[in-house]
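Memo to structure team: turn this sequence into structure tokens by end of day. - J.P.
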Amino acid sequence: MIIILLGPPGSGKGTQANFIQNKLSIPHLSTGDILRQSVKNETDLGNKVKNIMARGELVSDDLVLNVIKERVSENDCDQGFILDGYPRNIIQAKSLNIVLKDIDRNIDRILFLDVDFSILQSRIETRSKENNDEKRADDTSEVLIKRLDEYKAQTEPLSEYYRNNKKFKKINGMKSISEVSLDIENFLDNGI
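Reply from structure team:
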């Protein structure tokens, strides 16, 4: 099963992706995690994107598409995968369709975690305080504001792009974690 998980920064995508990963035994592919690991490991990709990410800007579509192409071709993705943080704009959504068509695969579910933007800042600040060992350069109020502006301009339109797709479901991300997980499970199992 190939699942796209959409939502703004701090909406709970990582938490829900872990739930789905445990339920379906498929890898969770977070472009943000892949890029942060590249920065940490000082790879060529990491060196290219380090300053871009620290400023809260989005990495170019071409670089991210190459990361996705490479990752989904690995053996652990044969039974499916969860895309978290990709696509993040309509151009990437169209490119993803081409990539999947080339490997004879289709998107099975598109989940959009819908949350109130006014609470996202407190979620990010809480996450930043809780993760002192693994503090993310992109978990600051200043960078969050930049990330939310980028999200509103580029990623939010994906909800409209996918809206009429029968595989798309908007999930109320303001509910408790377990309630959101249950809504996701119902959609994964029953398509409702």
